[in-house]
Q: What sequence folds into this?
C-alpha cells in the first residue's frame, strides 16, 4: 500500500502502477506454484502411535477404490508358532501361514500360540491395512502383503515391550540391493526420534501396520470390543 | 477550495483503486496456491472434489466420478486419464532410455546410460556413431519392507496404567469401522469367482503357444513361448503384434520411425533429375544412407515375486540400407535384477562383458564382432533373478 501511495503521489499513471504491481504478483504466482507443487504423499500428520484403525479410516476418507476391497494378506509365524484368526466370535483356524483378504480400515485381532521356548504363552497382535495393491487380474492371491512375524518380536512382546511395525511397498527407485525371497519380510528399526510411519513413507508406500504386545482378553473368550467388532475376512 | 476538494476526491478514488488492486492480487495469489493440488492429483482429486460437492446426488455423477465399491470386471482399476502400468511403485521396468539421452563419446565412453536403460550403438560407414534404444518392458514385482519401533519399559508401564480405559476409547473407533465395512462383502466375492476363471484360460493359451515353436539359427534352444513374435522369429514387424509389444507407453519408438520405411529400398537407385532448360541433361545419383538398428526387448513373464527368474530376449536388426559395424548392445540392469551368470546367449559372434553399476547390479554388454549387413540381425538372451 505504501508503495502504491508513493507512486500515486508522484503523479504516475494508474497503468504504470499496474505494471509495478504486476511484477511482484508474477513472482508471487511462480513462488506459490513452486511451493504448492505436488510432492510425495506423506503421512506427516499421522503417527504410528495413533489408535488402531485411525490411519486406515483416514485412508478411506481420501477416496479411491479402497472401500470394500479385500486386500490379500499373508501372515506367517516363526518356528512353528500358530496364527489364529477370529472365526464366529472365537479364535480358531490355527496355522503357521494364514492367507486372508482383509478390508482397509478395520483392525484385525489375531492370536499367536505355540510360541517357541514360550510354551503356554499367548500374544494378541493386531493388523491394520491402510492401503492396497493393484495387481494384474487374477494375480491378487499371489501378490499378498507379507506380514511375517519374527521370533525376536514375539520375545520382545512377551517381555512387556510393545512392537509397532509398518509394512511398506518399496519404491523401485529407492530399492536396496539385497537378495530377498517370499519367506521373509525385510525389516529394520526406525532411527531414534523418527516415527516408523514417517520412515516407511519416505521409502515407499505404507500398506499395513502390525502391533504386537497390546492388551489381552479379560475372559476366556474374546468379546466384541476386544476383536474390534469382528471385521469380515475373506479366506 | 474547489481544487482542494477535487484533489481530496481524486486521492480517495486512487486509494480505493489501489486497495482494490491489492485485494485482487491477494485473491489471485490465494487461488493460485489452490490450483496445482487439484490438477496435479488428476483423476483422484477430481473424484474427491466431485464427491464432496455433490454428496447425495450420486445418480447424476458420471461413472468415473464415484469412487465407491470398485468394479472388478475387465482390466484392473487405474485413475482416469492415467495410462498403465499403474501404480508405478508396483512395477519394475527395464529397457528404453530414460533420463539423459545416452551418447557415445570419442573415447567410446557411453554417457547417459541410467539404470534400467537398454540401448545399442553402432558405427556407420561414413564415420558416425548412432545410439538406438529398445522398447521398455514392465514386470509387476512389488517388494515390501518394514520399519519397526519397539517401545521400552516406560511405554509398557504406561500401557498397564491405562489398560482399563482402553476399551472405552476404542469403542468409539469400532462404531466408525462398522459403518465403513459392512456393505461390500458380496461384491468382493463375485470378483473372486471371476479371478479363478481367467487363470484357467491362461493355461490353455500357453499350451497353444508351445505348439508353434520355431528355431533361430545360432541359438542353442528353440524359441521360448514368450518370444512368440514375428519380429523375434524372423525380424519382420507384424502390425498385429504392436498391441502386445506396445503395452508400455514408450514401446517401439524405433520401429514407428519414419526412417524405417526407407530401409526396404534394397538397391541403389538412380533418381533422374532432368532439366530441359538447357541443352544438356543433368543426372544426379542419391546414394541411400540411412543406417538404422531396431532393438526389441521382451520378457518371459509379466509378474514376478522376489526370488523368481525372468528371461529377457533382445532382438536386434539392421533395418537400414547400409552395413553397420561395431554394434554394441548394453543393458544397465535395475537394482532388483540380478544377472545369472553363464546365461547369456547371442546368435551372432559377440564378446560379452559385464561391469558393476552404482545400483549394485550389472551393466551387461554384447559387442557384435562382425559388421551387420542390411536386413540381418540376431537374438540375445539372458536370465535374471528378481531380488
A:
Amino acid at each position: 500500500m505504501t508503495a502504491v501511495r508513493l507512486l500515486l503521489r508522484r503523479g504516475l499513471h494508474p497503468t504504470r502502477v499496474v505494471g509495478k504491481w504486476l511484477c511482484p504478483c508474477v513472482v508471487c504466482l511462480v513462488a506459490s506454484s513452486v511451493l504448492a507443487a505436488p510432492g510425495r504423499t506423506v503421512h506427516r500428520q499421522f503417527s504410528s502411535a495413533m489408535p488402531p484403525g485411525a490411519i486406515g479410516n483416514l485412508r478411506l476418507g481420501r477416496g479411491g477404490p479402497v472401500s470394500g476391497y479385500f486386500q490379500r494378506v499373508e501372515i506367517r509365524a516363526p518356528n512353528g508358532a500358530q496364527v489364529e484368526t477370529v472365526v464366529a466370535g472365537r479364535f480358531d483356524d490355527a496355522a503357521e501361514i494364514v492367507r486372508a483378504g482383509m478390508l482397509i480400515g478395520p483392525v484385525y485381532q489375531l492370536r499367536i500360540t505355540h510360541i517357541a521356548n514360550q510354551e503356554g504363552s499367548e500374544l494378541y497382535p493386531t493388523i491394520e491395512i491402510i492401503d492396497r495393491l493393484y495387481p494384474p487380474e487374477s494375480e491378487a492371491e499371489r501378490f499378498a502383503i507379507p506380514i511375517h512375524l519374527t521370533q525376536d518380536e514375539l520375545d520382545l512382546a512377551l517381555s512387556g515391550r510393545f512392537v509397532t511395525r509398518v509394512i511398506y511397498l518399496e519404491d523401485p527407485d529407492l530399492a536396496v540391493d539385497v537378495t530377498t525371497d517370499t519367506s521373509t519380510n525385510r525389516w529394520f528399526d526406525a532411527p531414534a526420534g523418527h516415527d516408523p510411519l514417517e520412515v516407511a513413507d519416505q521409502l515407499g508406500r505404507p500398506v499395513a501396520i502390525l502391533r504386537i504386545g497390546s492388551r489381552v482378553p479379560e475372559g476366556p473368550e474374546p468379546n466384541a470390543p476386544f476383536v474390534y467388532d469382528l471385521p469380515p475376512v475373506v479366506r | 477550495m474547489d481544487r482542494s476538494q477535487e484533489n481530496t476526491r481524486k486521492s480517495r478514488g486512487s486509494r480505493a483503486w489501489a486497495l482494490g488492486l491489492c485485494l485482487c492480487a491477494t485473491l489471485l495469489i490465494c487461488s493460485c496456491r489452490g490450483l496445482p493440488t487439484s490438477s496435479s492429483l488428476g483423476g483422484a482429486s477430481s473424484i474427491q472434489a466431485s464427491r464432496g460437492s455433490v454428496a447425495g446426488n450420486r445418480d447424476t455423477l458420471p461413472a468415473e466420478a464415484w469412487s465407491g465399491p470398485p468394479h472388478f470386471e475387465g482390466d484392473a482399476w487405474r485413475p482416469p486419464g492415467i495410462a498403465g502400468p499403474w501404480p508405478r511403485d508396483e512395477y519394475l521396468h527395464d529397457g528404453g532410455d530414460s533420463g539423459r539421452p545416452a551418447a557415445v563419446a570419442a573415447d567410446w565412453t557411453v554417457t547417459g546410460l541410467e539404470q534400467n536403460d537398454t540401448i545399442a550403438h553402432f558405427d556407420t560407414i561414413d564415420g558416425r556413431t548412432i545410439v538406438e534404444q529398445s522398447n521398455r518392458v514392465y514386470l509387476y514385482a512389488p517388494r515390501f519392507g518394514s520399519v519397526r519401533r519397539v517401545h521400552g519399559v516406560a511405554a509398557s508401564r504406561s500401557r498397564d496404567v491405562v489398560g482399563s480405559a482402553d476399551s472405552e476409547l476404542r469403542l468409539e473407533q469400532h462404531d466408525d469401522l462398522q459403518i465403513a465395512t459392512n456393505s461390500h462383502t458380496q461384491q468382493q466375492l463375485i470378483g473372486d469367482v471371476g479371478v479363478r476363471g481367467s487363470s484357467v484360460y491362461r493355461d490353455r493359451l500357453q499350451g497353444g503357444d508351445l505348439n508353434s515353436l520355431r528355431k533361430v539359427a545360432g541359438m542353442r534352444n528353440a524359441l521360448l513361448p514368450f518370444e512368440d513374435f514375428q519380429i523375434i522369429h524372423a525380424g519382420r514387424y507384424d502390425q498385429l503384434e504392436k498391441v502386445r509389444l506396445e503395452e508400455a507407453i514408450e514401446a517401439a519408438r524405433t520401429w514407428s520411425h519414419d526412417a524405417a520405411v526407407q530401409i526396404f529400398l534394397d538397391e541403389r537407385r538412380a533418381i533422374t533429375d532432368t532439366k530441359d532448360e538447357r541443352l544438356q541433361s543433368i543426372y544426379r545419383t542419391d546414394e541411400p544412407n540411412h543406417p538404422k538398428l531396431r532393438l526389441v526387448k521382451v520378457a518371459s513373464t509379466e509378474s514376478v515375486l522376489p526370488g523368481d527368474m525372468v528371461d529377457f530376449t533382445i532382438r536386434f536388426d539392421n533395418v537400414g540400407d547400409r552395413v553397420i559395424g561395431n554394434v554394441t548392445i548394453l543393458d544397465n540392469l535395475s537394482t532388483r535384477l540380478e544377472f545369472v551368470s553363464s546365461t547369456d546367449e547371442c546368435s551372432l559372434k559377440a564378446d560379452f562383458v559385464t561391469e558393476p553399476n552404482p545400483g549394485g547390479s550389472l551393466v551387461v554388454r554384447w559387442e557384435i564382432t562382425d559388421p551387420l549387413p542390411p536386413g540381418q540381425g540376431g537374438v540375445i538372451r539372458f536370465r535374471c533373478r528378481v531380488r
Remarks:
- The longest strand of chain B covers residues 309-318.
- The radius of gyration of chain B is 32 Å.
- Chain B touches chain A through 95 residues (CB under 8 Å).
- The helical segments of chain B are 2-41, 43-53, 153-161, 163-181, 185-210, 230-233, 242-245.
